[in-house]
Design a protein that fits this description.
With about 100 residues, the chain is α+β, with helices and mostly antiparallel strands. The chain has helices spanning about 25-40, 50-60, and strands spanning about 10-20, 80-90. Helix 1 (about 25-40) packs across helix 2 (about 50-60).
Length: about 100
Amino acid sequence: MPVVEPPKTEVKESTEKEYTVKRGDSVWNIAKSNLIEKHKDNKDYMPSDKEIIQEVKTIMKDNDLKFEPDNYHVMIKPNDKLRLIAVSYTHLRAHET
């Protein structure tokens, strides 16, 4: 019986941009918009809550952001600068052996 390996993933391209926080922004909405931008090749793409949560964690880590004492909100203010990193991946098909 052939053994099928899981697809291998390699980083294709990594780009960094600076985002200036606007009035009314939240880390959640910034994360969601960033995910949609990363998948702009797929016009039907809509990120799941799980994907958005992961992107929020990435943005928080990359920008040294912390949760407020309520453990829910993240304080950002208009004109704050956030580092957003977009990584494109190439999925390689493994050979059957």
